[in-house]
Design brief:
Blueprint: E1 2-3, E2 8-13, E3 16-21, E4 26-30, H1 32-42, H2 47-58, H3 62-78, E5 83-84, H4 85-88
Antiparallel strand pairs: 1-5, 2-3, 3-4
Helix pairs in contact: 2-3
């Protein structure tokens, strides 16, 4: 499951999304597809679930859509807009023992 930081605010509509980081006043805009993915991930859906829904709605191959969704999620994570709750809950000392 993915979550966004508490310092982020977003507005989503059919044309996309605007994400504001209130701690830095940094703003990110997403197109309609990006807004769709952002909204579904914030609802608690998995990458697979989002890709399946998007594939059905767009009549695109699931493998291609899933790859694109994973790439997009990676971009969001690299910009610290999204984090993987499973990774965030891991023991920070794991792997050092």
């Amino acid at each position: 499951m993915f979550s966004s930081a508490s310092n982020l605010r977003s507005i989503i509509d059919e044309t996309g999304a605007v994400i504001l980081d209130i701690s830095t006043n940094r703003m990110v805009t997403l197109n309609a597809t990006g807004g769709y993915i952002w909204d579904r991930l914030r609802q608690g859906k998995t990458i697979i679930e989002v890709a399946q829904e998007l594939s059905c709605e767009s009549n695109q191959e699931i493998a291609e859509v899933e790859r694109d969704v994973r790439d997009f999620v990676g971009e969001l994570m690299s910009k610290c807009l999204l984090r993987d709750e499973c990774t965030a809950k891991q023991d920070p000392l794991e792997g050092r023992r």
